[in-house]
Amino acid sequence: MRIVVLAGGIGGARFLRGLKAAAPEAEVTVIGNTGDDIHLFGLKVCPDLDTVMYTLGGGIHEEQGWGRADESFAVKQELSAYGVGPEWFGLGDRDFATHIVRTQMIAAGYPLSAVTEALCARWQPGVRLIPMTDDRVETHVVIDTPDEGRKAVHFQEYWVRLHAGPDARAVLPVGAEQSKPAPGVIEAIAAADVVIFPPSNPVVSVGSILAVPGIREAIADAGVPVVGLSPIVGGAPVRGMADKVLAAVGVEADAAAVALHYGSGLLDGWLVDTADADRVAEVDRAGIRCRAVPLMMTDVAATTAMAREALALAEEVRA
Amino acid sequence: MRIVVLAGGIGGARFLRGLKAAAPEAEVTVIGNTGDDIHLFGLKVCPDLDTVMYTLGGGIHEEQGWGRADESFAVKQELSAYGVGPEWFGLGDRDFATHIVRTQMIAAGYPLSAVTEALCARWQPGVRLIPMTDDRVETHVVIDTPDEGRKAVHFQEYWVRLHAGPDARAVLPVGAEQSKPAPGVIEAIAAADVVIFPPSNPVVSVGSILAVPGIREAIADAGVPVVGLSPIVGGAPVRGMADKVLAAVGVEADAAAVALHYGSGLLDGWLVDTADADRVAEVDRAGIRCRAVPLMMTDVAATTAMAREALALAEEVRA
Protein backbone atom coordinates (compact mmCIF):
# COMPACT_ATOMS: atom_id res chain seq x y z
CA MET A 1 0.00 0.00 0.00
CA ARG A 2 1.24 3.46 -0.88
CA ILE A 3 0.30 6.19 1.57
CA VAL A 4 0.88 9.92 1.15
CA VAL A 5 0.82 12.06 4.28
CA LEU A 6 0.83 15.87 4.36
CA ALA A 7 2.76 16.69 7.50
CA GLY A 8 3.56 19.69 9.63
CA GLY A 9 5.80 19.38 12.67
CA ILE A 10 5.19 17.68 15.99
CA GLY A 11 1.62 16.45 15.37
CA GLY A 12 2.47 15.13 11.92
CA ALA A 13 5.68 13.50 13.08
CA ARG A 14 4.05 11.72 16.01
CA PHE A 15 1.18 10.54 13.83
CA LEU A 16 3.69 9.14 11.34
CA ARG A 17 5.30 7.07 14.06
CA GLY A 18 1.89 5.52 14.71
CA LEU A 19 1.25 5.05 11.00
CA LYS A 20 4.53 3.18 10.52
CA ALA A 21 3.55 0.87 13.38
CA ALA A 22 0.01 0.44 11.99
CA ALA A 23 1.16 -0.28 8.44
CA PRO A 24 4.77 -1.50 8.61
CA GLU A 25 4.68 -2.77 5.03
CA ALA A 26 3.30 0.42 3.52
CA GLU A 27 5.39 2.73 1.37
CA VAL A 28 4.87 6.08 3.04
CA THR A 29 5.67 9.36 1.30
CA VAL A 30 5.58 12.43 3.51
CA ILE A 31 5.05 15.80 1.90
CA GLY A 32 6.54 18.16 4.43
CA ASN A 33 5.56 21.73 5.13
CA THR A 34 8.34 24.22 4.47
CA GLY A 35 6.26 27.36 5.02
CA ASP A 36 7.73 27.74 8.49
CA ASP A 37 11.32 27.53 7.25
CA ILE A 38 13.43 30.42 8.41
CA HIS A 39 16.92 31.80 7.87
CA LEU A 40 18.71 32.25 11.16
CA PHE A 41 22.35 33.23 11.54
CA GLY A 42 22.70 32.83 7.78
CA LEU A 43 21.58 29.21 7.99
CA LYS A 44 18.50 27.63 6.47
CA VAL A 45 16.37 26.06 9.18
CA CYS A 46 13.47 23.73 8.24
CA PRO A 47 11.69 23.04 11.53
CA ASP A 48 8.94 20.77 10.22
CA LEU A 49 11.14 18.66 7.97
CA ASP A 50 13.61 18.22 10.81
CA THR A 51 10.93 17.33 13.34
CA VAL A 52 9.70 14.56 11.05
CA MET A 53 13.27 13.40 10.33
CA TYR A 54 14.43 13.45 13.94
CA THR A 55 11.21 11.89 15.28
CA LEU A 56 11.19 8.98 12.84
CA GLY A 57 15.00 8.66 12.92
CA GLY A 58 15.24 8.39 16.70
CA GLY A 59 16.98 11.71 17.29
CA ILE A 60 14.12 13.79 18.64
CA HIS A 61 13.91 15.36 22.08
CA GLU A 62 10.90 13.30 23.13
CA GLU A 63 9.43 15.50 25.85
CA GLN A 64 9.85 18.70 23.89
CA GLY A 65 8.70 17.23 20.59
CA TRP A 66 11.20 19.25 18.53
CA GLY A 67 14.98 19.59 18.46
CA ARG A 68 17.57 16.97 19.31
CA ALA A 69 17.88 14.73 22.33
CA ASP A 70 20.95 15.27 24.54
CA GLU A 71 21.32 18.76 23.19
CA SER A 72 23.83 21.42 24.25
CA PHE A 73 23.79 25.14 23.54
CA ALA A 74 27.39 26.34 23.29
CA VAL A 75 26.97 27.89 19.84
CA LYS A 76 23.85 29.81 20.85
CA GLN A 77 25.51 31.12 24.02
CA GLU A 78 28.48 32.32 21.99
CA LEU A 79 26.25 33.98 19.42
CA SER A 80 24.56 35.81 22.28
CA ALA A 81 27.98 36.87 23.59
CA TYR A 82 28.56 38.43 20.16
CA GLY A 83 25.22 40.18 20.47
CA VAL A 84 23.86 38.18 17.57
CA GLY A 85 20.25 37.08 17.82
CA PRO A 86 17.48 36.19 17.68
CA GLU A 87 17.59 34.91 21.25
CA TRP A 88 14.07 33.56 21.03
CA PHE A 89 14.76 30.67 18.67
CA GLY A 90 16.37 27.75 20.45
CA LEU A 91 18.93 26.12 18.19
CA GLY A 92 21.11 23.54 19.91
CA ASP A 93 24.60 22.47 18.88
CA ARG A 94 23.51 19.17 17.34
CA ASP A 95 20.69 20.86 15.50
CA PHE A 96 23.10 23.51 14.18
CA ALA A 97 25.03 20.80 12.37
CA THR A 98 21.92 19.86 10.37
CA HIS A 99 21.42 23.48 9.33
CA ILE A 100 25.11 23.87 8.46
CA VAL A 101 25.01 20.82 6.20
CA ARG A 102 21.76 21.97 4.61
CA THR A 103 22.98 25.51 4.01
CA GLN A 104 26.26 24.30 2.57
CA MET A 105 24.47 21.96 0.16
CA ILE A 106 22.01 24.64 -0.92
CA ALA A 107 24.89 27.06 -1.50
CA ALA A 108 26.47 24.34 -3.63
CA GLY A 109 23.36 24.30 -5.80
CA TYR A 110 21.36 21.35 -4.50
CA PRO A 111 17.59 21.85 -4.25
CA LEU A 112 16.02 21.40 -0.82
CA SER A 113 14.49 18.09 -1.89
CA ALA A 114 17.95 16.67 -2.67
CA VAL A 115 19.32 18.07 0.58
CA THR A 116 16.47 16.50 2.54
CA GLU A 117 17.16 13.16 0.89
CA ALA A 118 20.83 13.46 1.82
CA LEU A 119 20.05 14.29 5.44
CA CYS A 120 17.58 11.39 5.58
CA ALA A 121 20.32 9.05 4.37
CA ARG A 122 21.70 9.42 7.86
CA TRP A 123 18.42 9.35 9.79
CA GLN A 124 16.70 6.55 7.88
CA PRO A 125 13.23 7.73 8.86
CA GLY A 126 11.57 4.77 7.13
CA VAL A 127 9.46 7.08 4.97
CA ARG A 128 10.26 9.09 1.89
CA LEU A 129 10.32 12.70 3.07
CA ILE A 130 9.87 15.35 0.37
CA PRO A 131 9.51 19.07 0.99
CA MET A 132 6.31 20.47 -0.52
CA THR A 133 8.43 22.68 -2.76
CA ASP A 134 12.05 23.51 -3.54
CA ASP A 135 11.03 27.15 -3.86
CA ARG A 136 10.99 29.64 -1.06
CA VAL A 137 7.62 29.93 0.63
CA GLU A 138 7.37 31.75 3.94
CA THR A 139 4.26 31.82 6.06
CA HIS A 140 3.71 35.30 7.44
CA VAL A 141 1.11 36.22 10.03
CA VAL A 142 -0.50 39.66 10.03
CA ILE A 143 -0.93 41.09 13.52
CA ASP A 144 -1.79 44.43 15.10
CA THR A 145 0.96 45.91 17.25
CA PRO A 146 0.72 48.83 19.67
CA ASP A 147 3.79 50.56 18.24
CA GLU A 148 3.92 49.69 14.58
CA GLY A 149 0.27 49.19 13.70
CA ARG A 150 -0.69 46.30 11.47
CA LYS A 151 2.29 44.32 10.21
CA ALA A 152 3.31 40.90 8.96
CA VAL A 153 5.72 38.79 10.95
CA HIS A 154 7.34 35.48 10.07
CA PHE A 155 5.32 32.56 11.39
CA GLN A 156 8.18 31.58 13.70
CA GLU A 157 8.19 35.05 15.19
CA TYR A 158 4.43 34.82 15.74
CA TRP A 159 4.61 31.42 17.33
CA VAL A 160 7.98 31.17 19.06
CA ARG A 161 8.64 34.79 20.00
CA LEU A 162 5.11 36.08 20.50
CA HIS A 163 3.62 32.75 21.64
CA ALA A 164 0.66 33.44 19.32
CA GLY A 165 -0.41 36.16 21.73
CA PRO A 166 -1.73 38.74 19.26
CA ASP A 167 -4.75 37.79 17.19
CA ALA A 168 -3.81 36.64 13.70
CA ARG A 169 -5.53 38.95 11.19
CA ALA A 170 -4.36 36.99 8.17
CA VAL A 171 -2.02 34.15 7.30
CA LEU A 172 0.00 34.67 4.12
CA PRO A 173 1.96 31.88 2.48
CA VAL A 174 4.34 34.36 0.83
CA GLY A 175 5.76 32.99 -2.40
CA ALA A 176 3.34 30.09 -2.59
CA GLU A 177 1.63 31.31 -5.76
CA GLN A 178 4.91 31.25 -7.66
CA SER A 179 6.08 27.95 -6.20
CA LYS A 180 6.10 24.55 -7.81
CA PRO A 181 5.72 21.18 -6.08
CA ALA A 182 9.10 19.57 -5.43
CA PRO A 183 10.08 16.69 -7.72
CA GLY A 184 8.20 13.56 -6.70
CA VAL A 185 5.31 15.29 -4.92
CA ILE A 186 2.74 15.09 -7.70
CA GLU A 187 4.00 11.64 -8.75
CA ALA A 188 3.61 10.31 -5.19
CA ILE A 189 0.07 11.65 -4.93
CA ALA A 190 -0.86 10.18 -8.31
CA ALA A 191 0.49 6.78 -7.28
CA ALA A 192 -1.04 6.80 -3.78
CA ASP A 193 -3.63 4.35 -2.52
CA VAL A 194 -4.57 6.66 0.36
CA VAL A 195 -3.87 10.29 1.25
CA ILE A 196 -3.89 11.24 4.92
CA PHE A 197 -4.03 14.63 6.60
CA PRO A 198 -2.64 13.96 10.07
CA PRO A 199 -3.72 16.12 13.02
CA SER A 200 -1.42 18.92 11.86
CA ASN A 201 -2.33 22.57 11.78
CA PRO A 202 -4.94 22.98 8.99
CA VAL A 203 -3.80 26.51 8.16
CA VAL A 204 -0.05 26.89 8.61
CA SER A 205 0.93 23.23 8.07
CA VAL A 206 -1.48 21.36 5.79
CA GLY A 207 -2.81 24.68 4.48
CA SER A 208 0.65 25.80 3.37
CA ILE A 209 1.21 22.53 1.54
CA LEU A 210 -2.16 22.86 -0.21
CA ALA A 211 -1.23 26.43 -1.17
CA VAL A 212 1.48 25.16 -3.53
CA PRO A 213 -0.22 25.24 -6.92
CA GLY A 214 -0.93 21.75 -8.18
CA ILE A 215 -0.93 19.85 -4.90
CA ARG A 216 -4.58 20.41 -3.95
CA GLU A 217 -5.66 19.58 -7.49
CA ALA A 218 -3.54 16.42 -7.59
CA ILE A 219 -5.10 15.19 -4.34
CA ALA A 220 -8.64 16.00 -5.49
CA ASP A 221 -7.98 14.25 -8.81
CA ALA A 222 -6.17 11.20 -7.43
CA GLY A 223 -9.41 9.24 -7.11
CA VAL A 224 -8.30 7.57 -3.88
CA PRO A 225 -9.57 7.99 -0.32
CA VAL A 226 -8.43 11.19 1.38
CA VAL A 227 -8.81 10.93 5.13
CA GLY A 228 -8.02 13.46 7.83
CA LEU A 229 -7.73 13.53 11.61
CA SER A 230 -8.93 16.54 13.54
CA PRO A 231 -6.26 18.58 15.32
CA ILE A 232 -9.10 20.25 17.24
CA VAL A 233 -10.50 18.36 20.20
CA GLY A 234 -13.26 19.77 22.37
CA GLY A 235 -13.08 23.13 20.63
CA ALA A 236 -9.36 23.71 21.16
CA PRO A 237 -6.15 22.60 19.50
CA VAL A 238 -4.49 19.63 21.18
CA ARG A 239 -1.27 21.64 20.92
CA GLY A 240 -0.15 24.72 19.06
CA MET A 241 -2.08 27.76 17.91
CA ALA A 242 -4.52 26.33 15.35
CA ASP A 243 -7.40 28.25 16.98
CA LYS A 244 -5.62 31.56 16.34
CA VAL A 245 -4.79 30.93 12.71
CA LEU A 246 -8.16 29.29 12.00
CA ALA A 247 -9.78 32.48 13.22
CA ALA A 248 -7.67 34.41 10.72
CA VAL A 249 -9.20 32.42 7.88
CA GLY A 250 -12.70 32.66 9.34
CA VAL A 251 -12.97 29.10 10.57
CA GLU A 252 -14.14 28.16 14.05
CA ALA A 253 -11.87 26.09 16.27
CA ASP A 254 -14.18 23.14 15.97
CA ALA A 255 -13.58 19.58 14.77
CA ALA A 256 -16.43 19.74 12.25
CA ALA A 257 -15.59 23.23 11.04
CA VAL A 258 -12.07 22.14 10.10
CA ALA A 259 -13.44 19.26 8.01
CA LEU A 260 -15.80 21.65 6.22
CA HIS A 261 -12.89 24.04 5.71
CA TYR A 262 -11.03 21.32 3.81
CA GLY A 263 -14.34 20.48 2.11
CA SER A 264 -15.86 17.42 0.54
CA GLY A 265 -14.11 18.24 -2.73
CA LEU A 266 -10.89 17.27 -1.02
CA LEU A 267 -11.78 15.09 1.98
CA ASP A 268 -13.56 11.75 1.86
CA GLY A 269 -13.25 10.83 5.51
CA TRP A 270 -12.67 12.62 8.81
CA LEU A 271 -11.90 11.44 12.29
CA VAL A 272 -12.94 13.50 15.29
CA ASP A 273 -12.17 12.72 18.90
CA THR A 274 -14.77 10.91 21.01
CA ALA A 275 -15.15 14.21 22.88
CA ASP A 276 -16.58 15.59 19.63
CA ALA A 277 -18.96 12.73 18.86
CA ASP A 278 -21.74 15.30 18.58
CA ARG A 279 -19.95 16.83 15.56
CA VAL A 280 -20.04 13.63 13.48
CA ALA A 281 -23.49 14.14 11.98
CA GLU A 282 -22.66 17.60 10.67
CA VAL A 283 -19.56 16.37 8.87
CA ASP A 284 -21.43 13.38 7.48
CA ARG A 285 -24.14 15.69 6.17
CA ALA A 286 -21.46 17.64 4.30
CA GLY A 287 -20.55 14.51 2.39
CA ILE A 288 -17.47 13.58 4.40
CA ARG A 289 -17.65 10.19 6.13
CA CYS A 290 -16.98 10.87 9.80
CA ARG A 291 -16.18 8.73 12.86
CA ALA A 292 -15.47 9.63 16.47
CA VAL A 293 -12.47 7.76 17.91
CA PRO A 294 -9.85 8.63 20.55
CA LEU A 295 -7.46 11.18 19.01
CA MET A 296 -5.03 11.95 21.82
CA MET A 297 -1.49 10.89 20.82
CA THR A 298 -0.48 10.08 24.39
CA ASP A 299 1.87 7.28 23.35
CA VAL A 300 2.81 5.22 20.30
CA ALA A 301 0.07 2.64 21.04
CA ALA A 302 -2.65 5.31 21.07
CA THR A 303 -1.19 6.89 17.94
CA THR A 304 -1.00 3.53 16.20
CA ALA A 305 -4.68 2.95 16.97
CA MET A 306 -5.50 6.35 15.44
CA ALA A 307 -3.59 5.46 12.28
CA ARG A 308 -5.47 2.14 12.07
CA GLU A 309 -8.77 3.99 12.37
CA ALA A 310 -7.71 6.37 9.58
CA LEU A 311 -6.76 3.46 7.31
CA ALA A 312 -10.00 1.63 8.15
CA LEU A 313 -12.02 4.71 7.32
CA ALA A 314 -10.15 4.99 4.04
CA GLU A 315 -11.10 1.43 3.12
CA GLU A 316 -14.69 2.16 4.11
CA VAL A 317 -14.98 5.19 1.83
CA ARG A 318 -13.17 3.32 -0.95
CA ALA A 319 -15.78 0.54 -0.84
CA MET B 1 53.95 55.35 20.67
CA ARG B 2 52.28 53.74 17.66
CA ILE B 3 53.41 50.23 16.90
CA VAL B 4 52.45 48.16 13.89
CA VAL B 5 52.88 44.39 14.12
CA LEU B 6 52.56 41.94 11.22
CA ALA B 7 51.16 38.84 12.86
CA GLY B 8 50.51 35.25 11.98
CA GLY B 9 48.87 32.90 14.46
CA ILE B 10 50.18 31.46 17.70
CA GLY B 11 53.67 33.02 17.64
CA GLY B 12 52.35 36.43 16.71
CA ALA B 13 49.53 36.30 19.25
CA ARG B 14 51.78 35.29 22.12
CA PHE B 15 54.32 37.95 21.20
CA LEU B 16 51.55 40.54 21.19
CA ARG B 17 50.61 39.62 24.72
CA GLY B 18 54.20 40.38 25.73
CA LEU B 19 54.22 43.59 23.72
CA LYS B 20 51.08 44.86 25.43
CA ALA B 21 52.73 44.19 28.80
CA ALA B 22 55.98 45.83 27.68
CA ALA B 23 54.30 48.92 26.25
CA PRO B 24 50.90 49.25 27.89
CA GLU B 25 50.47 52.83 26.69
CA ALA B 26 51.29 52.11 23.06
CA GLU B 27 48.66 52.14 20.32
CA VAL B 28 49.18 48.77 18.69
CA THR B 29 47.83 47.98 15.23
CA VAL B 30 48.05 44.36 14.20
CA ILE B 31 48.00 43.53 10.50
CA GLY B 32 46.78 39.97 10.49
CA ASN B 33 47.57 37.24 8.01
CA THR B 34 44.54 35.96 6.14
CA GLY B 35 46.41 33.73 3.70
CA ASP B 36 45.55 30.68 5.79
CA ASP B 37 41.83 31.49 5.82
CA ILE B 38 39.72 28.59 4.68
CA HIS B 39 36.08 27.85 3.90
CA LEU B 40 34.87 24.87 5.88
CA PHE B 41 31.27 23.66 5.98
CA GLY B 42 30.31 26.78 4.05
CA LEU B 43 31.75 29.00 6.78
CA LYS B 44 34.63 31.42 6.53
CA VAL B 45 37.33 30.51 9.03
CA CYS B 46 40.21 32.93 9.75
CA PRO B 47 42.58 30.98 11.98
CA ASP B 48 45.24 33.65 12.44
CA LEU B 49 42.85 36.54 13.10
CA ASP B 50 40.97 34.40 15.59
CA THR B 51 44.11 33.24 17.35
CA VAL B 52 45.15 36.86 17.89
CA MET B 53 41.63 37.85 18.97
CA TYR B 54 41.10 34.93 21.34
CA THR B 55 44.64 35.15 22.80
CA LEU B 56 44.47 38.86 23.55
CA GLY B 57 40.78 38.70 24.51
CA GLY B 58 41.23 35.92 27.07
CA GLY B 59 39.34 33.23 25.17
CA ILE B 60 42.21 31.12 23.86
CA HIS B 61 42.89 27.49 24.73
CA GLU B 62 46.19 28.23 26.44
CA GLU B 63 47.94 24.88 26.15
CA GLN B 64 46.92 24.33 22.55
CA GLY B 65 47.59 27.91 21.47
CA TRP B 66 44.61 28.00 19.09
CA GLY B 67 40.87 27.53 19.45
CA ARG B 68 38.69 28.32 22.44
CA ALA B 69 39.11 27.38 26.09
CA ASP B 70 36.44 25.06 27.55
CA GLU B 71 35.55 23.88 24.10
CA SER B 72 33.06 21.17 23.14
CA PHE B 73 32.65 19.38 19.82
CA ALA B 74 28.99 18.50 19.37
CA VAL B 75 28.65 20.23 15.99
CA LYS B 76 31.73 18.51 14.57
CA GLN B 77 30.55 15.11 15.79
CA GLU B 78 27.19 15.66 14.14
CA LEU B 79 28.78 16.78 10.90
CA SER B 80 30.78 13.56 10.94
CA ALA B 81 27.57 11.62 11.53
CA TYR B 82 26.27 13.21 8.31
CA GLY B 83 29.47 12.14 6.57
CA VAL B 84 30.44 15.77 6.10
CA GLY B 85 34.11 16.57 6.47
CA PRO B 86 36.89 17.47 6.61
CA GLU B 87 37.52 15.51 9.79
CA TRP B 88 41.05 16.82 10.10
CA PHE B 89 40.19 20.41 10.99
CA GLY B 90 39.17 20.74 14.63
CA LEU B 91 36.41 23.30 14.95
CA GLY B 92 34.78 23.43 18.36
CA ASP B 93 31.26 24.58 19.16
CA ARG B 94 32.33 27.95 20.58
CA ASP B 95 34.63 28.54 17.66
CA PHE B 96 31.81 27.68 15.23
CA ALA B 97 29.83 30.65 16.56
CA THR B 98 32.62 33.02 15.51
CA HIS B 99 32.62 31.58 12.01
CA ILE B 100 28.82 31.70 11.81
CA VAL B 101 28.78 35.38 12.76
CA ARG B 102 31.60 36.16 10.32
CA THR B 103 29.98 34.28 7.45
CA GLN B 104 26.62 35.88 8.07
CA MET B 105 28.15 39.37 8.09
CA ILE B 106 30.15 38.71 4.93
CA ALA B 107 27.03 37.39 3.20
CA ALA B 108 25.32 40.61 4.28
CA GLY B 109 28.00 42.58 2.44
CA TYR B 110 30.42 43.61 5.16
CA PRO B 111 34.12 43.41 4.27
CA LEU B 112 36.30 41.18 6.44
CA SER B 113 37.89 44.22 8.08
CA ALA B 114 34.49 45.43 9.30
CA VAL B 115 33.59 41.92 10.44
CA THR B 116 36.87 41.64 12.36
CA GLU B 117 36.18 44.95 14.05
CA ALA B 118 32.70 43.76 15.04
CA LEU B 119 34.05 40.49 16.47
CA CYS B 120 36.73 42.43 18.36
CA ALA B 121 34.02 44.61 19.92
CA ARG B 122 33.26 41.57 22.01
CA TRP B 123 36.82 40.40 22.65
CA GLN B 124 38.41 43.77 23.34
CA PRO B 125 41.89 42.55 22.43
CA GLY B 126 43.45 45.91 23.36
CA VAL B 127 44.93 46.28 19.88
CA ARG B 128 43.44 47.31 16.58
CA LEU B 129 43.29 44.13 14.54
CA ILE B 130 43.05 44.59 10.75
CA PRO B 131 43.20 41.78 8.21
CA MET B 132 45.95 42.34 5.66
CA THR B 133 43.30 42.50 2.93
CA ASP B 134 39.55 42.29 2.44
CA ASP B 135 40.19 40.32 -0.74
CA ARG B 136 40.51 36.58 -0.94
CA VAL B 137 44.10 35.38 -0.72
CA GLU B 138 44.77 31.70 -0.13
CA THR B 139 48.18 30.28 0.55
CA HIS B 140 48.67 27.07 -1.38
CA VAL B 141 51.60 24.70 -0.97
CA VAL B 142 52.90 22.67 -3.90
CA ILE B 143 53.81 19.11 -2.96
CA ASP B 144 54.67 15.84 -4.71
CA THR B 145 52.22 13.02 -4.06
CA PRO B 146 52.65 9.33 -4.87
CA ASP B 147 49.25 9.07 -6.55
CA GLU B 148 48.56 12.43 -8.07
CA GLY B 149 52.00 13.75 -8.86
CA ARG B 150 52.77 17.37 -8.15
CA LYS B 151 49.81 19.33 -6.89
CA ALA B 152 48.88 22.38 -4.85
CA VAL B 153 47.03 21.99 -1.58
CA HIS B 154 45.57 24.62 0.73
CA PHE B 155 48.02 25.61 3.43
CA GLN B 156 45.71 24.19 6.11
CA GLU B 157 45.66 20.87 4.34
CA TYR B 158 49.46 20.90 4.18
CA TRP B 159 49.85 21.80 7.82
CA VAL B 160 46.88 20.34 9.65
CA ARG B 161 46.08 17.28 7.54
CA LEU B 162 49.53 16.37 6.24
CA HIS B 163 51.46 17.74 9.24
CA ALA B 164 53.89 19.33 6.78
CA GLY B 165 55.15 15.84 5.98
CA PRO B 166 55.80 16.23 2.23
CA ASP B 167 58.48 18.68 1.16
CA ALA B 168 57.02 22.01 0.09
CA ARG B 169 58.07 22.64 -3.53
CA ALA B 170 56.57 26.10 -3.65
CA VAL B 171 54.37 28.37 -1.59
CA LEU B 172 51.79 30.32 -3.59
CA PRO B 173 49.80 33.20 -2.09
CA VAL B 174 46.97 32.70 -4.59
CA GLY B 175 45.13 35.94 -5.26
CA ALA B 176 47.71 38.12 -3.55
CA GLU B 177 48.75 39.94 -6.73
CA GLN B 178 45.19 41.17 -7.28
CA SER B 179 44.58 42.02 -3.64
CA LYS B 180 44.57 45.42 -1.98
CA PRO B 181 45.51 46.23 1.60
CA ALA B 182 42.45 46.47 3.82
CA PRO B 183 41.32 49.97 4.81
CA GLY B 184 43.61 51.31 7.51
CA VAL B 185 46.60 49.08 6.78
CA ILE B 186 48.66 51.56 4.78
CA GLU B 187 47.54 54.44 7.02
CA ALA B 188 48.64 52.57 10.16
CA ILE B 189 52.04 51.81 8.67
CA ALA B 190 52.50 55.42 7.57
CA ALA B 191 51.62 56.65 11.06
CA ALA B 192 53.74 54.07 12.92
CA ASP B 193 56.69 54.86 15.13
CA VAL B 194 57.91 51.27 14.96
CA VAL B 195 57.08 48.24 12.83
CA ILE B 196 57.67 44.81 14.33
CA PHE B 197 57.83 41.38 12.70
CA PRO B 198 57.13 39.00 15.57
CA PRO B 199 58.53 35.45 15.53
CA SER B 200 55.83 34.41 13.07
CA ASN B 201 56.41 32.23 10.04
CA PRO B 202 58.45 34.34 7.57
CA VAL B 203 56.89 32.68 4.53
CA VAL B 204 53.27 31.77 5.16
CA SER B 205 52.50 34.42 7.81
CA VAL B 206 54.63 37.56 7.46
CA GLY B 207 55.43 36.59 3.87
CA SER B 208 51.74 36.46 2.93
CA ILE B 209 51.15 39.88 4.42
CA LEU B 210 54.13 41.30 2.52
CA ALA B 211 52.75 39.71 -0.67
CA VAL B 212 49.78 42.10 -0.66
CA PRO B 213 50.86 44.82 -3.09
CA GLY B 214 51.63 48.04 -1.27
CA ILE B 215 52.36 46.70 2.20
CA ARG B 216 56.05 45.92 1.70
CA GLU B 217 56.57 49.26 -0.01
CA ALA B 218 54.72 51.16 2.75
CA ILE B 219 56.93 49.56 5.39
CA ALA B 220 60.12 50.22 3.47
CA ASP B 221 59.06 53.83 2.89
CA ALA B 222 57.79 54.54 6.40
CA GLY B 223 61.16 55.79 7.56
CA VAL B 224 60.76 54.26 11.00
CA PRO B 225 62.59 51.36 12.64
CA VAL B 226 61.51 47.93 11.41
CA VAL B 227 62.58 45.24 13.83
CA GLY B 228 62.06 41.49 13.67
CA LEU B 229 62.44 38.51 15.98
CA SER B 230 63.68 35.21 14.62
CA PRO B 231 61.21 32.34 14.59
CA ILE B 232 64.19 30.03 13.99
CA VAL B 233 66.25 29.04 17.02
CA GLY B 234 69.22 26.72 16.76
CA GLY B 235 68.46 25.93 13.15
CA ALA B 236 64.85 24.85 13.66
CA PRO B 237 61.50 26.59 14.06
CA VAL B 238 60.41 27.02 17.68
CA ARG B 239 57.05 25.68 16.52
CA GLY B 240 55.35 25.11 13.20
CA MET B 241 56.81 24.22 9.83
CA ALA B 242 58.86 27.28 8.94
CA ASP B 243 61.82 25.07 7.95
CA LYS B 244 59.69 23.33 5.32
CA VAL B 245 58.29 26.46 3.73
CA LEU B 246 61.60 28.32 3.96
CA ALA B 247 63.15 25.50 1.94
CA ALA B 248 60.48 26.04 -0.69
CA VAL B 249 61.66 29.62 -1.16
CA GLY B 250 65.34 28.63 -1.07
CA VAL B 251 66.09 29.92 2.41
CA GLU B 252 67.93 27.92 5.05
CA ALA B 253 66.25 27.32 8.40
CA ASP B 254 68.72 29.61 10.09
CA ALA B 255 68.20 32.73 12.22
CA ALA B 256 70.55 34.80 10.06
CA ALA B 257 69.22 33.48 6.77
CA VAL B 258 65.70 34.60 7.65
CA ALA B 259 66.91 38.14 8.36
CA LEU B 260 68.71 38.21 5.02
CA HIS B 261 65.58 36.86 3.37
CA TYR B 262 63.65 39.90 4.62
CA GLY B 263 66.68 42.00 3.65
CA SER B 264 68.15 45.26 4.79
CA GLY B 265 65.81 47.13 2.45
CA LEU B 266 63.01 46.16 4.81
CA LEU B 267 64.58 45.29 8.18
CA ASP B 268 66.59 47.64 10.38
CA GLY B 269 66.99 45.39 13.39
CA TRP B 270 66.86 41.65 14.11
CA LEU B 271 66.83 39.64 17.29
CA VAL B 272 68.17 36.11 17.36
CA ASP B 273 68.12 33.73 20.29
CA THR B 274 71.18 33.46 22.53
CA ALA B 275 71.61 29.98 21.06
CA ASP B 276 72.32 31.71 17.76
CA ALA B 277 74.77 34.31 19.07
CA ASP B 278 77.24 33.14 16.43
CA ARG B 279 74.84 34.35 13.71
CA VAL B 280 74.81 37.98 14.89
CA ALA B 281 77.89 39.11 12.98
CA GLU B 282 76.56 37.87 9.65
CA VAL B 283 73.31 39.79 10.05
CA ASP B 284 75.16 42.90 11.18
CA ARG B 285 77.39 42.68 8.11
CA ALA B 286 74.27 42.69 5.93
CA GLY B 287 73.33 46.07 7.36
CA ILE B 288 70.73 44.84 9.84
CA ARG B 289 71.49 45.66 13.48
CA CYS B 290 71.40 42.33 15.31
CA ARG B 291 71.32 41.25 18.99
CA ALA B 292 71.19 37.84 20.62
CA VAL B 293 68.64 37.66 23.46
CA PRO B 294 66.46 34.86 24.86
CA LEU B 295 63.65 34.25 22.36
CA MET B 296 61.69 31.39 23.91
CA MET B 297 58.12 32.53 24.73
CA THR B 298 57.83 30.21 27.71
CA ASP B 299 55.58 32.58 29.64
CA VAL B 300 54.31 36.15 29.54
CA ALA B 301 57.31 37.44 31.50
CA ALA B 302 59.77 35.96 29.00
CA THR B 303 57.66 37.26 26.12
CA THR B 304 57.46 40.71 27.67
CA ALA B 305 61.24 40.77 27.95
CA MET B 306 61.49 39.89 24.25
CA ALA B 307 59.15 42.73 23.34
CA ARG B 308 61.22 45.14 25.45
CA GLU B 309 64.36 44.01 23.62
CA ALA B 310 62.65 44.59 20.29
CA LEU B 311 61.55 48.08 21.29
CA ALA B 312 65.02 48.86 22.66
CA LEU B 313 66.61 47.71 19.42
CA ALA B 314 64.17 49.92 17.51
CA GLU B 315 65.25 52.95 19.54
CA GLU B 316 68.89 52.02 18.96
CA VAL B 317 68.51 51.90 15.17
CA ARG B 318 66.42 55.06 15.21
CA ALA B 319 69.24 56.98 16.96
From TrEMBL, chains A, B:
Gene Ontology molecular function: LPPG:FO 2-phospho-L-lactate transferase activity; magnesium ion binding
EC number, UniProt record: 2.7.8.28
Entry keyword set: Magnesium, Transferase
SUPFAM superfamilies reported for this sequence: CofD-like
Pfam families linked: CofD
Domain of life from the UniProt record: Bacteria
Keyword Transferase: yes
NCBIfam families in the cross-refs: F420_cofD
Protein name: 2-phospho-L-lactate transferase
Record organism: Streptantibioticus silvisoli
